[in-house]
Amino acid sequence: MKKRALVSVMLFFDVILLAITGLIAVFDQFIGEKAEFIVKLIHFITGLLFIILAVYHVIYNWKALKSYLNKKN
Hints:
Blueprint: H1 3-26, H2 33-60, H3 62-72
């Protein structure tokens, strides 16, 4: 699998995991204290991973993004 496709797929699943853990963190009164800590830790780690993957996504798709922006102008 190409790096470009791999980063895109990982970014997609990371966003899903971020959304799920974010919702769980909002409704943390329904889970225990240990589970709350684990969910928030997972959310924090996937947030950092999201930032890293987003940067790589822009790098790997720079040519396409540049081409798209030039067509709009």
